[in-house]
Amino acid sequence: MLIRKHVYFYGRVQGVGFRWRAMQAAKDLHLTGWVRNMYNGNVEMEVQGNGVMIERLFQELNSDRFIRIEKTEILQIPAVEGESEFSVRG
């Protein structure tokens, strides 16, 4: 089943390669969506695909030695039809 999540990541998530790590892992897991830095030092992401693969993406990000996620806010939102890639914004 195709699901989409809107996620805010808090912690040491900027200046540590978070967006590029997220993009590579998402592509490897065949997920689509986007990730971007926020002005307040946090990171925002929308990710779409199989729920198990989305959870695996979160595990990949949490296991990175440079990234320290202290808190996440996750909302399930409607899927976007026709989306074909995962990109870094901003």
Automatic annotation (TrEMBL):
| UniProt catalytic activity | an acyl phosphate + H2O = a carboxylate + phosphate + H(+)
Instruction: List residues traversing the bilayer.
Output: none
Q: Which residues form the active site?
A: R19, N37
Report domain Acylphosphatase-like positions.
4-90
Supply one GO molecular-function term. acylphosphatase activity
**Enzyme Commission numbers on file:** 3.6.1.7
Source domain of life is Bacteria
Q: Which UniProt keywords apply?
A: Hydrolase
Q: Which family does it belong to?
A: Belongs to the acylphosphatase family.
The protein's name: acylphosphatase
